[in-house]
Amino acid sequence: MNVLQVSGVCKRFGGLHALSNVTFDMPEGQILGLIGPNGAGKTTLFNVIDGVYPPEQGQVFFRGQDVTGAKPYRLARLGLARTHQIVRPLNDLSVRENVMVGACFGRQGLGLHEAAKTADEVLAFVRLEARAAQLAGSLNVAQKKRLEMARALAARPYLLLLDEVLAGLNPSEITAMVEIIRAIRAQGVSVIIIEHVMHAVMNVSDRLIVLDYGQQIAEGTPQEVSANPRVIEAYLGDPKLAERLLAST
Ligand SMILES: Nc1ncnc2c1ncn2[C@@H]1O[C@H](COP(=O)(O)OP(=O)(O)O)[C@@H](O)[C@H]1O
Ligand SMILES: [Mg+2]
Q: What digits encode the pLDDT tens for the residues 196-234?
């Protein structure tokens, strides 16, 4: 079964075409990498998939059900969870309480007692259990990213959307996070990962989609995509990214 089908999705902000006719199917159990230069529309695509913005055109099917225009809280109940590019934990709550929020409003809609158990299990999974009682506001960047991941996982999603969870991490933190992403997939959860850390996204993804100015310019295996002239051209505006992309192949 396809966990997700996106069909002809268009999203504009005023005169700006943030997404133009984006179309793809995603089979269950895969890691799909979503790459493209800054402003390409990657985060907007997540916002359309999880119901933050209804698309002007096109449809989104989640596990076979048309969810176009459905609200984020409803998608969370159906089994969709995400992290945010800019992490914003509830700073005045503990790490455990932050993760409990995910469990309470997620697919299982748990009560507080069960949510606390789920939170502790998921915190151990992302190796943040030692921080459970601390205020979320006291965590460093890498720990906040793990917290975001834990909150999303506590919702017990079928599909997890990860928006730049590796940004700002050092190489050993990136390696640890990539291991966690693989372990999530091994549990049967499908994952879409937006990422600029090219070697990591190339390494972890089964398939990649490349967006540029809201258009899907390439799709395929990491090998196919990184050899695609249109992809290299799209990154040439950003020599650093082009260099990283080429170095990762
Ligand atoms: N809420 C919004 N209002 C107006 N423009 C937006 C909004 N969100 C995103 N955009 C614009 O849409 C384009 C795509 O943005 P985004 O999806 O955040 O790109 P990416 O995540 O690929 O860097 C950018 O030009 C951005 O400025
Ligand atoms: Mg973004």
A: 888 899 999 999 999 999 999 999 999 999 888 888 888
* Å from CA of 17 to ligand 1 middle: 9
Q: Which residues line ligand 1 (CB under 6 A)?
A: 13, 16, 18, 36, 38-44
In a domain, 172, yes or no: no
99 and 219 share one domain:
no
| Judgement on whether residues 16 and 53 belong to the same structural domain of the protein | yes
Query: Domain residues for 47?
Result: 1-71+179-249
Distance CA 97, CA 136 (A): 9
What is the per-residue pLDDT for 247? 67
For ligand 1, mutation pick of 13, 211, 212, 213 (most atoms within 8 Å of CB): 13
Q: Is it the case that residue 249 has pLDDT exceeding 60?
A: no
Chain mean pLDDT for the chain: 94
Q: In what helix (H) or strand (E) does residue 95 lie, and over which residues does it extend?
A: helix 95-104
Region of 36 on the Ramachandran plot (φ > 0 left; ψ -120 to 50 alpha; else beta): left
